Each structure stands twice: as structure tokens, then as C-alpha cells.
Amino acid sequence: MRLATSEEMAALDRRAADEFGISTLMLMEAAGRQVASAAGRMVDRGSGRPSTRVFVIAGRGNNGGDGLVAARVLAAAGCRVTVILVAREADVAGDAAVNLAAARRAGIEISPLDSTGVPGLRGAMTGADLVIDGLFGTGFHGPVVGVAAKAIEAMNTCGRPVLAIDIPSGVHGDDGAVDGAAVRADATVTMGLPKVGMILPPGAEHAGRIWVADVGHPQRLIDGAGIRTSLVTRAMVDAVIPARRMDVHKGDFGRVLVVAGAVGYAGAAVLCSLGALRAGAGLVTVGVPAAVYPIVAPSVVEAMPMPLADHEGALAEAAADQIRDLASAADVVACGPGLSRLPGPSAVVRGLVAECATPMVLDADALNVLAGATEALRAARAPIVITPHPGEMARLLGVKVEEVQRRRLRTARTAAERFRVVVVLKGARTVIADPEGEAFVVPTGNPGMATGGMGDVLTGVIAGLIGQRLSPLTAAWAAAYLHGLAGDLAATARGPAGFLAREVADHLPAALRAVRVGSVDEVATRLA
Q1: Of 304, 308, 403, 492, which is least surrounded by CB within 10 A?
Q2: What's phi and psi for 201, nearest 5 deg?
Q3: 27 and 157, same domain (yes or no)
């Protein structure tokens, strides 16, 4: 499912008019009717009131126009509707003005809101069955101030269900940023396509349940719009996970080499190996420093642990030749978890990136080695996937962590283009990007996964899928989805916090089954 920016949606609306004769007024009418339909799903018709009471908070732009159409449709269905216009009527123009006049002709109560009316707004809304947020749309930027900020505060504190139109007011449509006041909606009905800002945090925390409404954009218009950001869905993952014939053998599902671990970090090698095995890899070899071999070997009996030359409990530079031989027989190499930053592992990583012709997944200490020497990524012989968390990404790019987090999608694209690798920027709503500008946002996962070892498992899952002949980009977004879904299943089984990375790995087969049979609750739901 494609995710649109505000500019991309505006371009779709223009092309709908220019190429298909679908005017913006027609789109507004369709949008408002979809809002009314969503409102009907949300109201409590068993409240005992003689009719449903709805407040529509409308701004002066097209978002307010959508709300005015919804008000007219709901009033015609017997609802008692009040429109609070957070603007001067003289400032309402274009299609919104057309629908303001139509709402007046329909006899709907319309009350312009100024500073004198703000104190009583929250109290008035407490008597509503539903509040509809039609204040600002996807084109909004900058902090909300003045009366509009007070209106948002009233919506957030009135204690009634809130339905946002297109995107919660105050959330930036392109990146999910929130600068000051923003509506916290129970649900959002968004037009045509979901918007990037309602999927990425912090905007995602404001959107509630998301319904995607068809307002009449022809599918071939959407398909040809060149939108290059996608929300990963169950169906997408199901389509790329290979089916298994009856006559398969372990060699058909990839040979994965894991290079990981050091004294104090042996668990990273174990978890990475488990991720690959639980993702369905046929054969997994685990290359570890000899000092931790006695710990790793009995912990991953289904894999093939190999002791490598070591020094001071970490890989020695002399291990490079052993690793090179192992990599030549593998389909993919996962390198980095728990290696440490000692000179030996650093030399091994630099040599592997420079010389290895086998696809690689680089994580953790492999990325720390390359911080300040990222030209090695561009010069690599093999396709590479990197899996940084925000701190590692900040070091790779030479920026602050706050900048990475504020512009996660842009940051992932920048790194992918600059380093010529597939980037998996981990965190809430993991972002995957490739060097050509294609990007994916993963909706699965939960806060309980913010604990040690989760990234090691993900590295193994990506490698396991590459070993099963998925391209590095496809393996990255499919693995991130499955890893997050396994975390969601672990949270359901164990509770919202305290479950372990190993348990997430153990839930990967169930995640694969859920994807195959369709028992996944998607973030964005098509509005009928």
C-alpha cells in the first residue's frame, strides 16, 4: 500500500481534474460522504438520546470543506449537527465556501469561533456523541497557535470520541512531526491513500484506527503517480515468502554464515543464528571467537558453530582467512552482532566489506567500525544491507540522533543513496530504503521490543530470507515485518513488556503462519 506526502496527494487531485474530469469539488463531496460513513461506525446509537449529536470543528481550507459535507450528510440522516468554524466566514474560499453555503441552506447550525467562545467549547462538546476534526489537513506545517490551538485542546480534553479527517490536525503530513498542539484522534479517515505522517511517530500516536477511503481517484492514476513510499502489508509479505514443495531439502533454503560474538557478547551470536533458523534458513554456520565457542555451541545445536582465531576474547585479524573461506560457501553473510570494537574485529570487518562477493547484512559493531569510513560501503563488491539503530545511523551520517528521529524517512533515503546500500533504520515503525529512492515503512512491532538482542534476531531474519533467494531489499522489508509481528505475538502471549529476544525468535514460525493464513490486524483498513 502506497504512502503519500501532502504534495503527492495534491498532485493526484490536480491530475484527477485535468486528466479524468474529476473536479476538486467532486472529490470533496466524496470525501465528506466517507467521513459521514466513518462517523456512523463510531457513534453509540444505544445512548438513549433522541438523535445522535455531532460537533464538526472546521477550518477555512479543504479539510474544513470535507467536514462541512459530512455535516450536511449527517444532518440529512437525522443527526443533530453543530459546526464550529475556526475561521472568519470571509476567509473561507473555493470549494470549502461552496459547501459552507450548502450547509447553511440545509439549516445546519454554524458558529464561528473566536477567543470569546473558546472557554465554553469543551463543555459544549461533552454533550456530543462524536467530535469530527476538520481543522487542518495534510498540507499543514508549523506549530498551531491562537484559537486553533485552544480548539485542539478542547477536542483532546472533552472526553468524547474524535474522528479526524485525512490526518489529525497539528500533525505534519510528510514526516509525522508534532510541533505543539495536535489532535489525538480515536480514528482517522484518510482520503485515497494513507499519509506518511500518520504512520510515522509521533504522528502515528495521534491517528488512532485508520480507515483509507476511496474518493474516486482512478487506480491507474495512483499506480502511475510515481509514489515511492509503501506501507508493508501482510499480503505483500505473503506474496514474497517462498512456498515449500514436498520434495525440497535444506540446501534449497540457503546457507547463512553468521560472524558474531566476543567475550561478554556471546548471546548476540546465538540470537542472530536463531533469527536465521526461525526464518526458515536451510543451513546456518556460526563463526565465533574460539573463546566463546563453548558458550555458543550448546546454545544453537541446530546450527554449525565454528571456532575462529581470537585475541583477547574477540576475533583476531588472522580469522579473516577462515571467514573468507566460509563466506565463499555461503549464500549470505550476517556480520556484526556482539563483535566488539577491538582492533581484530575491526580489521576483519573492513577486509570482509572490501573483498567478499557474497551478499552481506551488517549490524551493530560492523557499523561502528565503518563510522567515519563509509566510503568502504560504496566500494563493496557485494550487495549490502545495513541495520542501524538511530544512534548508529547518527554516527554513520555524522548528525545528531534527534535529527535522525525527526526525519526518519528522509534519513533512511539519504543514507541508502549516499552509501549505495539497503538501509534498515530500526525503531518504532522501522524504515527501509534502497539507493534508488524506494522506501518502505513497517507497521508491526511494539514498545516491549525495546530490549537487548532484538536487533540481533532481526539481522538473522534478514539473512535467512536473503538465503531463500529474496533480493536484499525485499528480504529487508519482509524480515522487518515478520520480526515485528513475532514481537506482537510474543507480547500477546507474555504481556506488553518483559518478553525476550529469544522468545521473539521463537514466535517467527507463528508469524509466518499468520501471514500465510491472513490472521493479521492491519494498521490501515480499507473503508467500505
Answers
A1: 492
A2: -65, 155
A3: yes
Q: Looking at residues 88-98, what average pLDDT do you find?
A: 95
Give pTM, 2 decimals.
Answer: 0.94
- Return the number of other C-beta atoms located less than 10 Å from residue 107's C-beta: 9
**Helix, strand or coil for residue 480?**
helix
Same domain, 399 and 441: yes
Q: pLDDT of 40-92, one tens digit each? A: 999 865 444 557 999 999 999 999 999 999 999 999 999 999 999 999 999 99
Q: SS3 for 341?
A: coil
Q: What is the DSSP letter of 395?
A: H
Q: Compare 149 and 519 and report the one with higher pLDDT.
A: 149
Please work out, in degrees rounded to the nearest 5, the angle formed at the alpha carbon of residue 55 by the alpha carbons of 53 and 60: 155
Who contacts 59 (Cβ-Cβ below 8 Å, separation ≥6)?
86, 87, 134, 135, 136, 137, 148, 169
> How many structural domains comprise the chain?
2
Owning domain of residue 72: 6-225
395 and 289 in a common domain: yes
246 inside domain: no
183 and 305 co-located in one domain:
no
CATH classification at residue 79? 3.40.50.10260
- Same-domain pairing of 393 and 480: yes
Closest-CA residue to 502 (of 273, 262, 335, 328): 273
